[in-house]
Amino acid sequence: MRTQDNRATANPMFCVQVIIRDMGYRQEYCDNRCWWNAEELETAFDDEPENLDGWDGPFGYKDRWETVAVCFTEEGCKRHLELNGHNYRHRQETRIHVESFHRNPEMEKVREFLMSLNPGGKRDG
Questions:
Q1: Which of 6, 21, 52, 111 could form a Cys-Cys staple with 12, CB 3.0–4.6 A?
Q2: What range does the domain containing 111 cover?
Q3: Is the pTM for the entire model greater than 0.90?
């Protein structure tokens, strides 16, 4: 925690995030479109199917980032992805993003405590 790049954040909260695709919007509210074929249980994104028989739509969709894990360090996020990344493989994309514990006194205190420990796990002083 002492040597990592905090990405210009005083109390960084490293987050593992995945893309979530929300579908079913009215297409005039979205830049992206999709079609649904209930018989084939298939969705076509962005490119209109050649033959629209059996397809419903178009519908709008939006992609958004959702946090699935929070760590004190970027290494913690990388380790989480090593141990649990198989659960996110069906997602289009994952990333490590930094938020902040700013104005979250509980987490600021926990982070302060962890920073007070020396590499052996004992408190300094």
A1: 6
A2: 12-116
A3: no
